[in-house]
Amino acid sequence: MKHAAFKLAGAALSLSLALSAYAAEPLRVAADPVPHAEILNFIKKLDPKLDLKVVELTSGVNANELLANGDVDANYFQHVPYLKDQEKALGKTFAVAATVHIEPLGIYSHKYKDLKSVPENATVAVPNNVTNLSRALFLLQSQGLIKLKPGFNDPANNLATPKSIAENPKKLKILEVESPQIPRSLDDVDLAVINGNYALEAGLTPAKDALGLESAEHNPYANILVTNPNLASDPRIKELAKDLQSPQVAEFIRKQYNGSVIPVAPQS
Predict the structure, then answer these.
(1) How many beta carbons lie within 10 A of that of residue 267, not counting itself?
(2) Where in the cell is it found (predicted)?
(3) Domain co-membership, 110 together with 209
(4) CATH code for the domain in which residue 88 is found
(5) Which of 9-13, 20-24, 207-211 has the highest mean pLDDT?
(6) Same domain for 118 and 19
C-alpha cells in the first residue's frame, strides 16, 4: 500500500512539475493590430507575470488555422458568429475563453455627409465573408436603406445575403470586398460598411466619422478570446481571460477608443 501511495505521489509530483513547466512557456496570442494587439500590449504592462507573446496578424492570415495547427495558443480578433462559420469551414471545434468588447460596424463615405444625401444607384462596399456580409446588410436595414425579407430579424442566427433583400428603394449596388481592403475603396464607392478594427487602422473614428453605426445594445458580435479545447483550463489562458475582463482593461478601452470600441460584461 505504501509503495502504491509513493508511486501515486511521485506521479502527481511529476504531473505538477510538467504543468509548471508548461505554464512557464510564453502564451502566444494572434491578434489584429488594432485594437486587439494594443489591448494585449496594455495587459503585458498590467500583468507582467503573464508571459504574453502577441502575434500581430497580417492580411490574408487565418488566425483560426494558426490556432488549429498549434502555431498559437489563442487568438483574439473575432466574434461568435464568425467563429461558428470558421468551425464549419475548418472542421474544428474551438473554445471561447472570454468575451471582451464590441467594435460597432459603421457606414462611411468620402462623398456624402449623411445617408439622406445618398442618391439612387449608389455603390455600397460591404465585407465579402459570410457573417460580416450579413451583419452589414442588417446595418443597412437598421438605417432604412434596404429592407430584408420576412424572417430575417435575428442577426445572430439569420445570415443574410444580397438575395435576402426584399426592398431596395435607392437601388443600391452591393459590392462585396475583402474586409481589410474596404477602407481603401472609400474614394471609389459611395458608401462603405467597415469593421471597427479596420476603420481604426485607417485613421477613422467610428463614433465620430460613421454616418450610421451599429448599436452596442444586445449586439451578438462581441469580440472574444478563443483557444483550443485542450487549453481551455490552462492557467495562462485563465489569467489572460481574467485580465481582459478586468476593470482596468475596460477603462483602458473606454479612454483609448472613445466609444469606437466598447467593453462588455462577460456573456454566458
Answers:
(1) 11
(2) Membrane
(3) yes
(4) 3.40.190.10
(5) 207-211
(6) no
Predicted TM-score (pTM) of the model is 0.81
Nearest alpha carbon to residue 261 among 105, 113, 126: 105
Q: How many domains does the chain have?
A: 2
CA separation for the pair 111, 25 (Å, rounded) = 50
Residues 165 and 185 occupy one common structural domain: yes
Range of the domain at 142: 106-213
Same domain, yes or no, for 196 and 236?
A: no
The tens digit of pLDDT for each residue in 13-69 reads: 544 454 454 456 899 999 999 999 999 999 999 999 999 999 999 888 999 999 999
Q: What is the pLDDT of residues 127-173, one digit of tens each?
A: 999 999 999 999 999 999 999 999 998 887 889 999 999 999 999 99
| Confidence class for position 11, pLDDT limits 50, 70, 90 | very low
Tell me the pairing of strands 106-108 and 191-194.
antiparallel
Nearest to 193, CA basis, from 210, 216, 168, 208: 210
44 in any annotated domain:
yes
| SS3 labels along 84-109 | HHHHHHHCCCCEEEEEEEECCCEEEC
Q: Do 167 and 150 fall into the same domain?
A: yes
Instruction: With respect to residue 268, please indicate whether it lies within any of the assigned structural domains.
Output: no
Radius of gyration of the chain (CA): 21
Strands 173-177 and 123-127: parallel
